[in-house]
Design brief:
73% of the residues lie in helices and 5% in strands. It contains one helix and two strands.
Length: 82
């Protein structure tokens, strides 16, 4: 008994039920693969931006706290001179 392996998929149909040539199918499959890669790259960029944004927000909050502390110290010094 011989087993034959066909690495090429059978002709496919589109969403309307029309037959799609193997060349068109493979072309669409390649485009879908490229699009999936771009989407993953975009997701990674969004995650990187979110991390950078969160770090920036944390630095801004730390700076605001330091400024508030300095303002309290300045106010205390001014009250001490009066």
């Amino acid at each position: 008994m011989g087993y034959s392996f066909n690495p090429m998929p059978d002709p496919k149909t589109n969403e309307h039920g029309d037959m799609v040539s193997l060349r068109d199918y493979l072309s669409l499959q390649a485009h879908a693969h490229k699009l999936a890669g771009l989407l993953m790259e975009g997701r990674d960029l969004v995650e990187e931006y979110s991390r950078a944004n969160a770090a920036g927000i944390a630095r801004e909050e730390a700076l605001r706290a330091a400024i508030a502390e300095l303002q309290r110290e300045v106010l205390a010094l001014r009250k001490g001179k009066s």
